[in-house]
Amino acid sequence: MVENQAGVTALVTAYIRAYHAVNSQDKIFNDYLADRLFSAEEHVSFNQNLTGMLPLINPELAALNPTPKQAMDNLVETHHGPITLSRSAYTEACLEQAIQRGVSQYVILGAGLDTYAFRHNQKTSPLQVFEIDHPATQALKRQRVAAAGWDIPPQLVLIPIDFTRQSLSDVLRASTFQPERPAFFSWLGVSYYLAPDVVAATLREVRSLAAPGSELVFDYMDAEAFIPEKAGKKIQLMHWIASRVGEPMKAGFEPGVLAALLNDLAYAVLENLPPSEIETRFFSGRSDAFHAFDHVHFMRAVVR
Ligand SMILES: C[S@@+](CC[C@H](N)C(=O)[O-])C[C@H]1O[C@@H](n2cnc3c(N)ncnc32)[C@H](O)[C@@H]1O
Question: Helix or strand or coil: residue 158?
Fold first, then answer.
């Protein structure tokens, strides 16, 4: 991330969840609060900026002069939406299972504008939620939460961190997090932006801090996404866009190598979903243009 610049990618992923919740009849993930984190002017400017990318992303459709709504729907379905919507749906389904077996702490690493804690208030959820994020992104979130007229729920703790400079276990241990109790960790849309050694260090830190039975879910790119001759067109475009907004993607992993790393760190891999399996679970039978994104995988592991 650019120093002191709030995560642009966090804003875009939240905006896409908001757009999908408002505009799609057949919801992959219903982030029904996200819309309220954006002003009316921002809706206009986000739509303009995103549809301005249509000639790059889908030149065939751009040549047909689609309406702004047709352009946005297509961009969300084919490019910006599949990863964020399916990974959030997957994570919250896994989290629900963890809650059923008694997990009472949820740590969201690189939370961005995640609304889980606002969608599950204290009356309906016994879960303590810890949002860990870059200080600039977290400051932006606080401003947007205040502008939406929301209070920070009592069960939510916001903790700033720069993963490249600070220790996750130090910051969590200094909070009300209870390391002796199992927790559920999510780490969505972050691993791509960190160097491989920072990803490995974070996995090690979560392991060193989390009690047995704790679970970690995250999405990652495969190694081929970083090899120009092997990376698909969409992922190449994503590299280009990420670099342009100052958040270049840095790490991809061969799925078996990542599973072996987790095993060495005393995690047990529960699921390591390739795009084909993500397609089956989240996108099959749809009548729109949503499909799983090539090169993006979901990992679910439990601390042994
Ligand atoms: C693509 S956003 C994803 C946000 C959210 N998890 C989601 O799915 O919408 C990437 C997130 O990683 C965070 N991030 C990136 N680099 C970071 C770093 N060095 N330290 C802490 N957080 C970082 C950003 O602040 C941002 O919230």
Answer: strand
Q: Using pLDDT thresholds of 50, 70 and 90, give the confidence band for residue 91.
A: very high
88 C-alpha to ligand 1 centroid (Å) = 14
Going by alpha carbons, the residue nearest to atom 22 of ligand 1 is: 134
- Which pLDDT score is estimated for 95? 98
Determine the distance separating the centroid of ligand 1 and the alpha carbon of 222, expressed in angstroms: 19
The Cα 30–Cα 200 span in angstroms is: 31
Report the alpha-carbon distance of residue 98 to residue 96 in Å, rounded.
5
The minimum-distance atom of ligand 1 relative to the CA of 137 is 25
Q: Is 9 in the pocket of ligand 1 (CB under 6 A)?
A: yes
Reported as a single tens digit per residue, the pLDDT across 112-153 is: 999 999 999 766 667 999 999 999 999 999 999 999 999 999
Task: Please give the domain boundaries of the chain with CATH numbers for all domains.
Answer: 82-303 (3.40.50.150)
Q: Which amino acid is at 228?
A: P
Is residue 215 packed enough to be buried (19+ CB in 10 Å), middle (13-18) or exposed (0-12)?
A: buried
- Cα separation values, 102 from 94, 99, 155, Å: 13, 5, 16
Q: What is the pLDDT of residues 242-271, one digit of tens each?
A: 898 888 999 899 999 999 999 999 999 999
> Would you say the CB of residue 111 lies under 6 angstroms from ligand 1?
yes
The answer to whether the CB of 278 is under 6 A from ligand 1 is no
Rounded to the nearest angstrom, the distance between the alpha carbon of 46 and the centre of ligand 1 is 19
Say yes or no: CB of residue 92 within 6 Å of ligand 1.
no
Buried/exposed 245-261: b ≥16 CB within 10 Å, e otherwise: eebebbbbbebeebbeb
Structure tokens belonging to residue 85? 């919507």
